[in-house]
Amino acid sequence: MPIFTTYDGTELAYHVQGEGEPLVCLPGGAMRASAYLGDLGGLAAGRRLIMLDLRGTGDSAIPADESTYRVDHQVADVEALRVRLGLERMDLLAHSAGGNLAQLYAAAHPDRVRRIVLVTPTAWAVDLPVTVEHKLTAARLRAGTEPYDSAIEAYEGILGGVDTDEAWELAAPLFYGRWDDAARAHWATGEQEGNEKASAAYAGPGAFDPPATRAGLRRVAGEVLVLAGELDGNPCPALAGQLAELFPRGAVDVQPGAGHFPWLDDAVWFSDRVERFLASGR
């Protein structure tokens, strides 16, 4: 497990899987250890995945100044990793809340990214918030059978303020395309992989300057793929499309039958689509 020292002296870890051209991967959560990404549906078969554990998560150290959990401070961590890897330009993949870090990095360093894959990304950094209606509209696509009817009821309660562990357990099937053994096991690992203090600080006050970030994204010359899940409300496909439009060479694609973790829902579709984009930009 390689370790490097970032701008403020914090030691950060990354995990390497596979062989081939490097692909730097930023986890979501926010602030969840990178282990939940697995091998991204077999993407490691043709790529060398560089899975960064963000500061204070996984095998990375807790910073001396915990205010640096805020996502804008972590842009310098991604740049330090690029320098450590010796890459003039890098391919970058980010999932969920990690999409905000990727957006901030691309805006700050548009000449350092070759291609970017944003997988079911949130886009607080550019003021494209996911609404309660987005989430409920997607959830209600599953109505009519169990466990989804119970999951929808629980999710409605969560979004209305009833935020309990029991409610989240009931709502869990909504975040996956299939509620099978793999999805259950993946969900069960979540509580062990996060840093609650870091998660709370990630999008804290002052983290974002959407007009400046949007202007920075217009300077990104490389291709960008925003990959949405058909059944995901965070973001819904329409919102993912709006994010793609902020990049000069952005495109959106929607994985059929997928939720928030599309590499688990159809690994072959996911890995083939991402590899095709990384190889050709299409």
Q: How would you summarize this macromolecular structure in one to three sentences?
A:
The chain has 282 residues and is an alpha/beta fold.
Structure description:
This protein has 282 residues and is of the alpha/beta class. It has a single domain, classed as Rossmann fold, CATH 3.40.50. The chain contains eleven helices and eight strands. The chain has helices spanning 75-85, 98-108, 132-139, 148-159, 165-171, 181-188, 196-202, 210-217, 237-244, 262-265, 267-280, and strands spanning 3-5, 11-17, 21-26, 47-52, 90-95, 113-119, 223-229, 250-255. The chain has an eight-stranded mixed sheet with strand order 1-2-4-3-5-6-7-8, with helices on both faces. Helix 9 links the parallel strand 7 and strand 8 (250-255). It is globular, with a radius of gyration of 18 Å. The mean pLDDT is 96.
